[in-house]
Amino acid sequence: MRIDIDFSIFDSPVSAYGNATGDIEVKTLPSVGDVVDLFEGRKAFELEGFSGRLKVTSVDKAETSGKAIFALEDVVVSSRAVATELAGKLEAELGLFCIDYDQ
What is the pLDDT of residue 35? Predict the structure, then answer.
């Protein structure tokens, strides 16, 4: 089944780069506290500070569609360059949409 996800990307512990949103494939519907593997059934890419396994922090309903949106824990990487690379890979390899707050 596919679920809608959303999580923030930080390029340092105190600086937000942007966020990632979209839908991913999961075997079972997760609950708050469960860990979701973004690469479910796919080969994972390796990147410093990002394992692809993120904990569900909340589940909210979208006002317009009523669909559940699974908020995942923040990803913190070491620099803006790594955050930019991560965003590009998330878009190219997982089909997520990433927003750079500075653009």
Answer: 95
Distance CA 80, CA 33 (A): 28
Q: Is 25 left (phi over 0), alpha (psi -120 to 50) or beta?
A: beta
Phi, psi angles (nearest 5°) of residue 90: -60, -40
DSSP one-letter code for 73: -
Structure token digits, residue 4: 């809608």
pTM recorded for the entire structure? 0.90
Q: If DSSP codes are grouped into helix, strand and coil, which group holds residue 27? A: coil
What is the C-alpha to C-alpha distance for residues 42 and 53, in angstroms, rounded to an integer? 13
Using DSSP's 3-state secondary structure scheme, residue 89 falls into: helix
Closest CA to 5 of 27, 39, 38, 33: 38
